[in-house]
Amino acid sequence: ANPFHWNAFGPVYDPSPVLQPVVYTKGAWILHMLRGRLGDADFFALLHAWTNDDGRPYNTVTTADFVALASEFAGEDLTAFFEPWLTTEAVPRVWMQHTVSDGPRGAGTRLQIHLQQVQTQLFDNVYPVQVTTSAGDTTVTVPLATVSTQQVFDLAGAVDSVTLDPQRWVYWVSASAPAPDPKQVGVKLVYPNPCRSYVVVRYYLDVAEPVHLRIVDARGQSVYERDLGVVTPDGEFNEVAWDLNGRGGGTVGGGVYWVVLDVAGSRTVGKFAVVH
């Protein structure tokens, strides 16, 4: 299906005129993407429940009813997934970059995936990524509901190739790599986000400078602090990791935290979440 052909007839929710390809073709794609997100068992159970349960047969139903029922089967609120597909003419334009490094299972077994959508209207999609390794093929999933996300995977074998959604479970258009951020000193990325056991702060330096790291919670209280001393630029970016242990020695609780990085008196901030 050509998204530019869809655009000629408005959004699914308000086609003009009615009964056009935007209803049939794009509507089928939305169900196809829902199937990929739920998996076959839950998807077909959803369809059975929708057509048989709660007095729906021969009755009046709404889109909100279907979204609510689909959310029950998904175990998450799918409003943000459905809304842009139904109410706008936008299409996700997605860019992926990956890096391979040594991991706990051997050389070349750690995969970091950076996924970004570059259009104005943001979509809440889950993208399958096929990874070929020396131990065989596997598929990992990368949720993308914000502008960009970073995910790290430790795999059983060395990574040979990485392909974004080869079976096209999500409708998306390939985008060119976004322009790099201006080289401003300070925090560039906090990943993985959300994090469970560690977090890495990536930052940029143009010359050797004193660097001080602080982590603060939602109340503005410092839960971790570290003076890195005078740091020399190391390649394109420098990185520092935190194992989520706070001042008292125990792991900090779940919630939203902020990285506060002081570089020679200049302060930058990054936001991340901890989940347990």
Walk me through the structure.
The chain has a 4-stranded mixed beta sheet with strand order 5-2-1-7, with no helix packed on it. Strands 11-10-13-14 form a 4-stranded antiparallel beta sheet, with no helix packed on it. Strands 4-3-6 form a 3-stranded antiparallel beta sheet, with no helix packed on it. By secondary structure, the chain is an alpha+beta fold. A hairpin with a 2-residue loop joins β13 (255-263) and β14 (266-274). The chain has 5 helices and 14 strands. Helices cover 21% and strands 39% of the residues.
Q: Quick summary of this structure?
A:
The chain has helices spanning 3-7, 21-38, 40-52, 63-74, 79-87, and strands at 93-103, 106-117, 125-133, 136-144, 148-154, 159-164, 173-174, 186-191, 199-204, 209-216, 222-231, 238-242, 255-263, 266-274. The chain is of the alpha+beta class.
Strand order of the largest sheet: 5-2-1-7
Q: Uncertain runs with pLDDT below 50, 5 residues or more?
A: none
Order of helices and strands: HHHHHEEEEEEEEEEEEEE
Give the overall form.
elongated
Q: List the quaternary state of the chains.
A: single chain
Overall pLDDT metric: 90
- Span between N and C termini? 41 Å
Number of E-type strands: 14
The percentage helix is: 10-25%
The number of distinct helices, counting runs of at least 4 residues, comes to: 5
Strand content: 35-45%
Topology:
Elements: H1 3-7, H2 21-38, H3 40-52, H4 63-74, H5 79-87, E1 93-103, E2 106-117, E3 125-133, E4 136-144, E5 148-154, E6 159-164, E7 173-174, E8 186-191, E9 199-204, E10 209-216, E11 222-231, E12 238-242, E13 255-263, E14 266-274
Parallel strand pairs: 1-7
Antiparallel strand pairs: 1-2, 2-5, 3-4, 3-6, 8-9, 9-12, 10-11, 10-13, 13-14
